[in-house]
């Protein structure tokens, strides 16, 4: 989890690649195992803000770590070592801001994990809509081994992903789990033999999603994010509101008309 000096610092820590309606956000600090320094976090937030401004031109985002050893091996420990409690809180707020930007993004975001996803790396992955992983991946929240606790959302999202008891076990012990265990626990949605298959599988999912009404996908994501962890009555109200909002879109009218007329829909994203 520690940062090693090298050539990583002379190039932007995050880059965005485009292929049609799919964007790939690459965390590019391989010598530091893609550790989440404040600069990386700010760059991630800026990248998602810029992509969100493009509206339905972006139908999905893949988040990957450069180098093949780690998705993100954790927070940048060097940057945490000298922080005051107040500065620590501000660091946590920055991590939560990145997670919030990803959750608010109107299209699906897939964390493509190949290697370590530890600490802040797992927290970043859990902020995405789903986690796809290679067999070589490992997951964990090892903060207690440093005298810390998860600070970027791990105590919130990990119990939702794997259940409260297993989340407590992972957080209290700092234990790592492999991709097969993570998949069985519901943390990982799909598992692949290698990076090439991982990226191809994630792209295939985004391509499938892109065939649907962008407005409906965005509404479904909004309801899923806002309703998560709320009481059933509150969640039901959020779903009703989202269902009503769908009736305000041209895509809903087109989708229903296409079904009745037995033809393929021509969604406009409005």
Task: Describe, in short, the structure shown.
By secondary structure, this protein is α/β, with parallel strands linked by helices. It is built from eleven helices and ten strands.
Question: Number of DSSP strands?
Answer: 10
Q: Any idea what the CATH architecture of the largest domain is?
A: Alpha-Beta Complex
Structural class: alpha/beta
* Main sheet strand line-up: 1-2-3-5-7-10
- The CATH superfamily of the largest domain is identified as 2-enoyl-CoA Hydratase, Chain A, domain 1
- General shape: globular
CATH class descriptor name of the largest domain: Alpha Beta
Strand fraction equals 15-25%
- Provide mean pLDDT, rounded: 93
* Distance between the first and last residues' Cα: 44 Å
Organism: Agromyces tropicus
Keywords: Lyase
Family: Belongs to the enoyl-CoA hydratase/isomerase family.
Protein name: Enoyl-CoA hydratase-related protein
